[in-house]
Design brief:
membrane, Vacuolar membrane protease, about 10% strand, Peptidase_M28, M28_fam, transmembrane helix, two-stranded antiparallel ribbon
Length: about 575
């Protein structure tokens, strides 16, 4: 059967455009909010005011301020003076670094500490209108790395806290709010762990922690980590993230697989406090570099950092007492459930429990499985299409490896992050998706419409089965397969229109995956092209199921007993 060129072009264009539109919309939304000028209302965070504060603290030209150095002490003094100007009292929690006392001191980094280092943590308290309520803790670190001034890491977070203190100093919250600017984070979270190692915290146990950090200098800021047994807290707070609301429970899973760490490890991991952890991840090529300066820090990033703090603190501070009691009781149960959550292009956040996800996964498998059994799909044609899928993955992987090899020939081959991380990653996804799509179109060009329906049902059944496995073993990311296969199963079980079912599953898949691919590329950097390529190839396999109505039926064979026309007969 010859391929129809017009149908072939439509398949490629429609499949690619739907994915590209989702990715581009995710990128556009995830840039961060429009920055506010210095004349913004005094009760709102302003990127312009935060930038002015950052320049004031870092100096001109911006200076490094490493733990245990004179420059570090000078930075801390300027920070204290700035906070004193708002009429708040600042206190230091000075703890001599003692590797025998605290249980986290990474070898290699602590060897670079100046002798007899004293960790100088800064503590600020804004008294609440109801002192009987448990306080809120807001935290970041004030020290820079040894190579750069740290405008992004974590100057952006420092000035967000300063901006918030400026407002609360004149408009006290309901809950007493403590701010901690820790020291020694760049040497291995030393200040936070030194505080956690004390016999007791210098203030009552916080009800919730908001921790801020940075691993870059541009783009919106995801809430990328939360505590275990988090469903109760997530259900009442997650939609109060500042727009764009960038988050995913998969980010929690991926982050905990990486060697990175923030002070949140001490607040949650050591002290068991509930909370949310935020960090900028765009522009990571300036992370721990000399050019991590105010000039290279995005105003959108500053605005989003401040907006997150203002919005989430307000949400926690205004929770009714009965809601707080209910949430705390649910969170402290031995079998406290975790939440599955994700944003929709930064507009809103969807959340449900892991148990609900497991039920949805099983429903998807049953719905599609019943369709396959009811239609008595034969098995004999499946091995060829399984092989087609493997070929598609291999061709995508080959494209990813080729792009990675090309990047290794550039001057960036020795660095962890590059200025083209995001473009290179998204180009890899596009090229791999197209290569896999072209190959699949060629491989399935001889399939009949009926055979293609068989393939579509089985592809989505396997997707549902894998989603079920993830729902139980890697629940933070299970929704990426569970929800698309559930959409397919629901539509397929009530209609014979397989194309409608396939498009339902595909649209849900790209709505979930498009924006997340942007975050994934930013988080993992430039040297994961093979991984991006495999993911793109798998998406191409799902996209292929939407072609079913474009597959032509095979020509009906001529009956053997039909008389042949003699030559010359009409």
């Amino acid at each position: 059967m010859k391929r129809d060129a017009s149908q072939f072009g439509r398949r490629i264009i429609v499949s690619t455009l739907t994915l590209a539109l989702s990715v581009c919309l995710g990128w556009y939304q995830y840039r961060g909010p429009a920055p506010l000028a210095a004349d913004a209302p005094v009760d709102q965070p302003s990127a312009a005011r935060m930038r002015a504060t950052l320049v004031e603290l870092l100096g001109d030209p911006p200076q490094k301020h490493t733990t245990g150095t004179a420059a570090g002490e000078a930075f801390l003094e300027r920070l204290e003076q700035k906070l004193d100007s708002y009429g708040v009292s600042t206190r230091r929690i000075e703890i001599p670094f003692d590797p025998e006392r605290q249980d986290r001191h990474p070898k290699g980094r602590i060897d670079l500490l100046p002798p007899d280092t004293v960790l100088k943590n800064l503590w600020v308290t804004i008294e609440g209108s109801d002192p009987s309520l448990a306080p809120i803790l807001v935290a970041t670190h004030h020290d820079s790395c040894r190579w750069g001034p740290g405008a992004g890491d974590a100057g952006s977070a420092v000035v967000a806290l300063v901006e918030h203190i400026r407002v609360l100093a004149n408009s006290p919250p309901v809950h007493t709010t403590h701010y901690l600017f820790t020291d020694g984070e760049e040497f291995g979270l030393l200040g936070a762990y030194a505080i956690a190692a004390q016999d007791s915290l210098p203030f009552p146990t916080p009800m919730f922690v908001l921790n801020f950090d940075a691993r870059g200098s541009s783009g919106g800021i995801p809430m990328f980590e939360t505590h275990s047994g988090n469903h109760a807290w997530v259900s009442v707070l997650i939609d109060d993230l500042a727009p764009p609301k960038i988050t995913s429970s998969l980010a929690v899973t991926v982050y905990r697989m990486l060697p990175n760490a923030t002070d949140f490890n001490a607040w949650h991991g050591k002290l068991g406090l509930p909370g949310f952890n935020y960090a900028v991840i765009g522009g990571a090529h300036r992370y721990h570099q000399m050019d991590d300066t105010p000039d290279n820090l995005s105003d959108r990033t500053l605005q989003h950092m401040g907006a997150h703090l203002f919005s989430m603190h307000r949400a926690v501070d205004r929770l009714p007492a009965d809601v707080v009691q209910r949430v705390q009781q649910a969170s402290t149960q031995p079998d406290a459930d975790n939440a599955v959550f994700f944003d929709l292009y930064g507009l809103t956040v969807i959340q449900f429990s892991e148990r609900v996800q497991q039920v949805l996964a099983l429903i998807a498998v049953v719905l599609i499985g019943v369709v396959c059994l009811r239609l008595r799909h034969p098995w004999r044609r499946l091995p060829r299409h399984v092989l087609n899928t493997l070929w598609a993955i291999l061709i995508g992987l080959a494209v990813g490896l080729a792009i990675r090899f090309a990047l290794l020939t550039t001057p960036w081959n020795a660095v962890k992050y590059t200025p083209i991380d995001l473009p290179a990653g998204l180009f890899t996804i596009a090229a791999s998706f197209l290569a896999a799509t072209f190959l699949l179109e060629w491989l399935v060009s001889r399939a009949s419409a009926e055979e293609f329906k068989l393939v579509s049902d089985w592809i989505w059944l396997v997707t549902a089965a894998l989603g079920t496995v993830l729902a139980f073993l890697l629940p933070g990311g299970g929704y990426l397969l569970v929800l698309p296969s559930l959409a397919y199963g629901l539509v397929r079980s009530v209609t014979a229109n397989i194309n409608l079912a396939a498009w339902s599953g595909w649209i849900v898949a790209i709505v979930l995956d498009g924006p997340l691919l942007v975050l994934l590329v930013q988080a993992l950097g430039p040297w994961r092209q093979p991984l991006y390529a495999v993911l793109a190839s798998l998406l191409a396999v799902l996209a292929m199921t939407t072609w079913s109505t474009q597959i032509r039926k095979k020509a009906r064979p001529i009956p053997k007993n039909r008389p042949r026309l003699a030559r010359g007969d009409a």
